[in-house]
Amino acid sequence: MTNTLFLPELREMLADNNRAELEEFCTTLNAGRTAEFMEGLSDAEVWQVLQFAQPERRSEIFGYFDEERQLSMLAQQPTDEVAELVEELAADDRVDLLQQLDDEHVDTILPLLPVEERRDIQRLRSYAEGTAGSLMTTEVAKLADRLTAREALEELSRQASELETIYYLYVVDDDNHLRGIVSTRQLVSSLAQPHRTLREMMETDVVVAMVDEDQESVAEKVEHFNLLAIPVLDSGRQLLGIITHDDVIDVVREELTEDAQRIAAVTPLERDFLRIGLVTLSWKRGIWLTILFFAALLTAFALRHYELELETYAWLVWFIPLIISAGGNSGSQSATLVITAMTGGEIELRDWRTVLMRESVVSLMLGGFIAVIGYAVAFFIAPSPSDALVIPLTLLAVMITGCLCGATLPLVFKRLGLDPALMSNPFVAGIVDIMGIVIYINVARMILSN
Amino acid sequence: MTNTLFLPELREMLADNNRAELEEFCTTLNAGRTAEFMEGLSDAEVWQVLQFAQPERRSEIFGYFDEERQLSMLAQQPTDEVAELVEELAADDRVDLLQQLDDEHVDTILPLLPVEERRDIQRLRSYAEGTAGSLMTTEVAKLADRLTAREALEELSRQASELETIYYLYVVDDDNHLRGIVSTRQLVSSLAQPHRTLREMMETDVVVAMVDEDQESVAEKVEHFNLLAIPVLDSGRQLLGIITHDDVIDVVREELTEDAQRIAAVTPLERDFLRIGLVTLSWKRGIWLTILFFAALLTAFALRHYELELETYAWLVWFIPLIISAGGNSGSQSATLVITAMTGGEIELRDWRTVLMRESVVSLMLGGFIAVIGYAVAFFIAPSPSDALVIPLTLLAVMITGCLCGATLPLVFKRLGLDPALMSNPFVAGIVDIMGIVIYINVARMILSN
Q1: Which among A256, A318, A329 has the least Cβ separation from residue B426?
Q2: From A256, A336, A381, residue closest to B256, measured CB to CB
Q3: Are residues A124 and A203 both part of a single domain?
Q4: Which residues numbered 339-378 in B keep a CB inside 8 Å of some CB on A?
Q5: For the domain that residue B335 is a member of, what is the CATH number?
Q6: What is the pLDDT of residue B77?
Q7: Residue A13 lies in a domain
Q8: CATH number reported for the structural domain that contains residue B55 in this entry
Q9: Is B262 within the bounds of a domain?
Q10: In what way does this protein cross or attach to the membrane (chains A, B) (predicted)?
């Protein structure tokens, strides 16, 4: 959403080096909107404007630009100014950014940071992509369990400006083991009894994530328990950091988008569609197209095998695409429904019997209906009304096959421990295509030989 | 995730009517886990256990059961107990629940609620599904702008136990107009200057949702601005309520799942896959299959039109499914990538030139590669190496057509103001099928007549 409303004024302020107005521009609006108004400026101009904001505000505004824009600014601007900005960014965001920069460039920035921040960055960089560790921030409100409500509030007011969230307070012992949590809401409601200690208030049955836990499993917990943040522990139950709700929304979006891409037989993209290299994109699509091509080759061999039938009854050829598409489409529908229901936690492996029962009923209804239309069409095209029966019978059989294959294959993949979304719709369609041809010719043999 | 670990003990406690242990069971664990442990119990047993929890805790635990389970409990249990539970539920959740119950049943529950709660429910029920109003809760921390930090904290501690979140304080004037917001984090950090008023602290450039705004647009704002909650205003800018982050995750999940279903030509399901009626499910799939069937009928007429060519060169028939699936698969990939990129905000309509340029390059690479494999196969099957050239040339042309159609059609739908995901993959494949056959026979005519 580029907003060009303020661009001329902003450029004029920059040309005049109008400190008062530029400072006001950086502080009055919501940080996200400030960033929006600057989107039409060049990287150098944005950077120039940002120098008029206080360091904390500067990194807040900077955080609202999209990642590609952030990277191009960091790559071009003076290293000392970059380091100053990086220092103020949220611990998890800055590590994500630095991961995308060249190692060389990072090595010029890191020495300019205070030693504590540097160590924090190095530790966070060491966690593998896709784990809880790679999502967490180390800025967390840690408090000792002996504090009273009032003391805790005072301590919190000292820590608050440094923290990303203060919506839960994490109660730790002297060895940094997580003992319990107190929500800010609880703390605030407890102010009537200012001498109650955190130990008395805290909830001890805390939902936690382990540092090497898969991000999708973490997102599931946060969603299921409606959390604002989840604490991340190491194997010794020491508190390492927290993962906040905004990162969880990103994980959910990423996971579902990847599913949609896998369902269409594309290896999920790691970068924006418009920014991914064309060779990489071709590769991610090409491997699947090649596999699908070899699967489809089987249809050519099958049809060649049925050469005699196809020459004797030439009209059968006309219906080939219609029949395989009916099978493929019903199969894709079933596969997509089963895959999305599994991702959404609506069905589990143990529901397979119910799923297949329901699919059987649905496929009978769908196949029956399409068969009736198919017969109406074939009636006018086939040599005789009895020959025309081949089409509806085939359509019914192919659509039942399609639905059952489409529903079963993702379940089988899940059972094998693979991602069910790998059982893509084109793959289901490819399998149903070849089965459809075999069914078609065999139904034709039965009907037409009478 | 049914957990059967505690079931025997729980049933024993119920049989003995062991108040002490049941009360402990309801309070010690995290509410979400308490619900999990009870999942194996019957509705009546769960209800019986819940009676041992304090009202607030009871509704919290109840909130963790899935919706179907909640409804079956509400439908069967004594109306006065149901009303007591409903009173304690979060304002937004209880309206969602009541919307699913029969009107008759709701009419027996409502009179048992305090008048204020009843009015609140009736107001929230009046907002249309899918709008900001239908997602919001009316439980919000409203404070006057003249309060100082310390007074605000005291007022907040009085309100906190009634509220779903206290992560932002909404500053209103005497007429309930929203003037600004203060985050709890800001408030807590301001305790060092206890006499600063909310007016001095508050951010006035607030991101808001209008009550009739579409839920997807609201979710986008919350995601873009990384909010924990967004205030909902009426057309006179009066503060009606807030929408919290957990409802936003639900909207994002719903939206992306619907996209995946539309991409596979299924009208999105409103209920869980295993719970939706089979007739409804067949209808949601059947209308698309019927439309697609009529589209596919065109292939039959096209092939009939080319009867002569297909009888003269019978081997051409064998490659029909292969060629149309290559076009369909590359088209589905392009369509899915464009649709998911639009949903994720990675591309806009104005990027259409770039998208088509990039798709052209990718389709040349993909088509070229598959054409080479295709020629290798056709070499052995076609009557002569020069006749075999029909296959690679067709594959290349069909895949370019597939990619460009797949990328263009969702953009056209978007331009027309329709949901791009309606341009489903089977639909793209259907269009590419018929174009593929026309291309195939015309390429064959050119090559084979030489």
Answers
A1: A329
A2: A256
A3: no
A4: 339-341, 343-344, 346-347, 351, 354-355, 358, 361-362, 365-366, 369-370, 373-374, 377
A5: 1.10.357.20
A6: 87
A7: yes
A8: 1.25.60.10
A9: no
A10: Multi-pass membrane protein
Taking a contact as any Cβ pair under 8 Å apart, which residues of chain B between 69 and 128 contact chain A?
Answer: none
User: Domain for residue B289, yes or no?
Assistant: yes
Contacts of B426 in chain A (CB under 8 A): 325, 328-329, 332
Do A206 and A179 fall into the same domain?
Answer: yes
Number of domains within chain A: 3
pLDDT tier, B74 (very low <50, low <70, confident <90, very high otherwise)? confident
Residue A173 C-alpha, separation from nearest chain B C-alpha, in angstroms: 20
Here the CATH number for the domain that contains residue A197 is 3.10.580.10
Q: Which of A154, A249, A361 to mutate to test the interface with B (most CBs of B within 10 A)?
A: A249
pLDDT one-digit tens code per residue, A134-158: 899 888 889 998 999 889 988 888 8
The domain boundary residue, chosen from B128, B152, B182:
B128
Q: Distance between CA A109 and CA A86 in Å, rounded?
A: 9
Residues A296 and A444 in one domain: yes
For chain B, the 3-state helix, strand and coil shares in percent, each to the nearest 5, are: 70, 10, 25
Inter-chain residue contact B320 with A320, CB threshold 8 Å: yes
Distance to chain B for A10, nearest Cα, Å: 19
A147 and A120, same domain (yes or no): no
| A124 lies in the same domain as A162 | no
Q: What is the mean pLDDT of residues B333-360?
A: 88
Q: Are residues A403 and A431 in the same domain?
A: yes
Alpha-carbon distance of A293 to B442, in angstroms, equals 22
* Predicted confidence (pLDDT) per residue in B429-441, tens digit: 889 999 999 999 9
> For the segment A93-102, what is each residue's pLDDT rounded down to a tens digit?
888 888 888 8
Q: Is the pLDDT of residue A1 over 50?
A: no
Mean pLDDT of B146-150: 90
What is the residue range of A86's domain?
Answer: 7-129
What confidence tier does B4 reach under pLDDT thresholds 50, 70, 90?
low
Above 0.85 for ipTM, yes or no?
no
Same domain, A162 and A78: no
Residue in B with minimal Cα distance to A249: B249
Render pLDDT for B353-401 as a digit per residue (tens, 0 to 9).
Answer: 999 999 999 999 999 999 999 999 999 989 999 999 999 999 999 999 9
Region A393-415: what's the mean pLDDT? 93
A165-193: average pLDDT = 87
AA letter at A344: G
Would residue B258 count as lying in a domain?
A: no
Contacts 24+ apart (CB under 8 A), B140-143: B140/B170, B140/B231, B140/B239, B140/B241, B140/B242, B141/B165, B141/B166, B141/B168, B141/B169, B141/B170, B142/B169, B142/B170, B142/B172, B142/B176, B142/B239, B143/B169, B143/B170, B143/B171, B143/B172, B143/B198
The DSSP secondary structure of B48-117, one letter per residue, reads HHHTTS-HHHHHHHHTTS-HHHHHHHHHHS-HHHHHHHHHHS-HHHHHHHHHHS-HHHHHHHGGGS-HHH
> Cβ–Cβ of A188/B203 closer than 8 Å?
no
Decide which of B96, B128, B160 is a domain's last residue.
B128
Question: In chain A, what residues touch B420 (CB-CB under 8 Å)?
Answer: none
Given an 8 Å threshold on Cβ–Cβ distance, is A188 in contact with B160? yes
Test the B interface: residue of A289, A290, A353, A437 with most B CBs within 10 Å: A289
Interface check for A311 against chain B (CB to CB < 8 A): the answer is: yes
Instruction: Give A329-380 pLDDT, tens digit per residue.
Output: 999 889 988 988 888 888 888 889 999 999 999 999 999 999 999 999 999 9
Contact (CB, 8 A) for A268 and A261? yes
Query: Quick check: A161 pLDDT over 80?
Result: no
Do A147 and A208 share a domain, yes or no?
Answer: yes
The verdict on a CB contact (< 8 Å) between B336 and A263 is yes
- Got the DSSP string for B3-24? --TTHHHHHHHHHHT-HHHHHH
